[in-house]
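User: Predict the complex.
Assistant: Input components as received:
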Amino acid sequence: MLKNIIIPAFLVALTVVSTAQAQKSNSYELASPGGINKIKFNLDKSAPKYEVSHGKIQVITPSDMGFMLKNNEDFSSNFEITNVKKSTFDETWEQVWGEKKNIRNHYNQLVVQLQQKDKNKRKLEIQFRAYDDGIAFRYVYPKQETKDSIFIMDEKTTFNLKEDGKAWWIPANRENRDEYLFKDAPVSTLDTVLTPLTIESKSGLALSFHEANLKDFASMTLVNNIGTQLKSDLVPWADGVKVRVKDTFTSSWRTLQIGEKPADLITSYLILNLNDPNKLGNVNYFKPYKYFGIWWGMHIGKYTFWESDKQGATTKRAEEYMDFTAKEGFHHLLIEGWNKGWTPAWYENKMHMFSFTKSADNFDLEKVVEYGNKKGVALIGYHETGSNLINYLKEVDDAFALYKKLGMHSVKIGHVGSKLNMKENHFGQFGVNYFRYILEKAAQYDLAVLYHESIKDTGERRTFPNMISREAARGQEYNAWSEGNPPNHLTIIPFTRLLSGPMDFTPGIFDVEVKQGFPSKRVHGTTAQQLALYLTIYAPIQMMADLPENYEGKPALQFLKDVPTDWEDTKVLEGKIGEYITTARKDRNSADWYLGTITNEKARDVNVSLSFLDPKVTYEAQIYADAEGTDETHNPSAVAISKKTVKASDVLKLHLGGAGGTAIRFKKI
Ligand code: CA
C-alpha cells in the first residue's frame, strides 16, 4: 500500500494548517488523515476535556486532563486558552532493523496552549495527534515566568470508555513486576493494571492503551475507579511523589491504538512513530542475530549460576558451546554466571554485590573471547545487577569499557528484585531515568542492550537502535521451575505485551518435556509450536534456548538456521486473543517469506491463503508441523517436515495439535 508514496526524510511535509485565533472558541476537533479517528478538545468550565471517536462509534466520552501538584494545588482547571495550533505531518522513515522496513508516520496535530487564571499563572500545553490507527496526547509544562521545582502528586487524566469490553490485563505494583499471566475480565471490574492494556470493546473494536517515549517521568498504569472509567495512576517514588522535575517537563504520550480487529494492533506502528528519530545513526556494531546460551541448564537445575562443581559458566563449557555454535553455523553465545558475586540465594531481595569485571575462578573471560574470535563466535556480555544499582552504577563504566576492549557489542542486563535498591519501583521515575541512562551510556561504548526485569518498552528503539530487546513479561524460564506458562499465554502476548516492542522470550526448546529438568516441570506446548514462535514473537535477537545436546542431529534445527530476525514486512493473517495467531513475515535480505501459526490448548485446522506471497514467484514451502497425533501430552517433540511447491493463489491446509503450531519457510525457486 505504501510502496508508491515513500518520501525521503528530507522531503517531510510539515504543514501548518492554521494558527487559530485565541479565545474565540473553547472547542476544537482534530481528525486523523483518513478521517476515521477524531479527537474533540473542549474547555469545559475552565477545565480541559477530550473525547475520542472511531467512525460513528464514540470510544471515549468527555474525560479529564491535568495534574495535582504539591500542597493540593489543582493543575486541571481554572484555565483559559492562549493559543491553538494545527498541523499535519507525513513522512516514511526506515527502521535500521525491525519487523517492517519502511514505516509511514502520518498524523494531524492539535496543540492547545493553556494558562491558569489564578495568581501563579501556570502554563500547560497539550499536544494531540490523530492517526488512522489511533490517537495520542501528551502534556508539556513549558518554562514559566518563575523558576520552580515541580512535584506531581497525581495525574488526573481519565479515559472514560463509552462501553464495557473484555480487557486482557496483568496487575501493576506487584512483587514480580510484569511477570504475570494475563487474564481477561470486563473493564468495569479491573483494579490497577499495567499497560499495554488491550480491550475488545462491546462494539467489536480492538483497543490498546499504552504510552510512548517515556523519559524523566513516571510510568503510567491504569486504575478503574468507577464504571468503565480508567484513570492514569503514575507509579510513585518511595516517598509517594509521582514525578519530581525542575522548571519544565514533557510527559510520555498517552496512546490509544484502535483497530477493527485485534490483529490490526500488531501492525500499528503508532508507538514507534511517537518516538524521536534515530539519534545514533547506523549502529554498525549491531546486526540482528540468533544466539545460544549457557542459560537453560541453570534454570532446569542441571548447572548452577554460582561457583560449584555444577557451575554452568566454566571456560571448558564455554569452549564446548562455542564449538557447537560454530559447527552449526551460528555466531553468538550468551554466558550467564561468568563473574564473581553469585550465590545460591542470588535472586533474593538483598543488596547482592556482583562484580562486573572479575571472572569466577573457573572462567577466563579473555581466553573465552579469544577462543570465540578464532571460531567466529561473539560473546554476549551479561550483567545481573540484582537490582543493586548503587553497586552497578559504580562499576558500569569499567564494565562497559572491559567489553569494548574485548570487542564485545551486546550486553544483557538483569534486574532481579522487587524494588531497585530495595526501595524504588522499577516503573517509577527513578527506574525510567536509570534505564535510559544505561541505554545512552551503552551507546557510548558501542554496546547493544538487552534488558531483563526492566521497565516496559515505550518505543525507545526508534531513537536508540542499540535498544534491541527486553524481557518485561513472563518468559520461557517459567517453564523450567514453575507451574509453567499455560498454552494460551503465547496466544495472548502478541496482542498485549508485544505491542510495546520486541521481547526476549527465549523460544526454541526442542525437548519440551525437559527430561533433564525438575520433575513435572515442562514446556506446555509442542516443539513445532516452539519453531512457530520465531514468527509470532518479534525480536531482532532470538535465543535458541535449549541445551546443545537437544539440538544435535535434529532435522528441525534447519528451520532455526534459516529463519531471519530482521524483516522487510509483517502481516498478521488471523488471530483471536487467547486462541490462535498466524503471522507471516518477509525476510529483509531475500525474497523468502516465513510463517508461524500457533494455537492454545485446542487442536485446530487452519486454511492459510498464500495471497501475501509475490504472485510472480513460485516457492518451495518447507513445512515444520506437529507430527500426526502430536499435541502437548502426546509425543510433543515430534516434528513432521515436508516440502511442497506453492504459489500465491494456493491455500495451505494445516493441522495444529493442542498447544501446537506450524512453522514454514517459503523459499523462492
Ligand atoms: Ca527474568
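Residues 452-453, 471, 477 surround calcium ion (CB under 6 Å).
Let me know if you want any component modeled separately.
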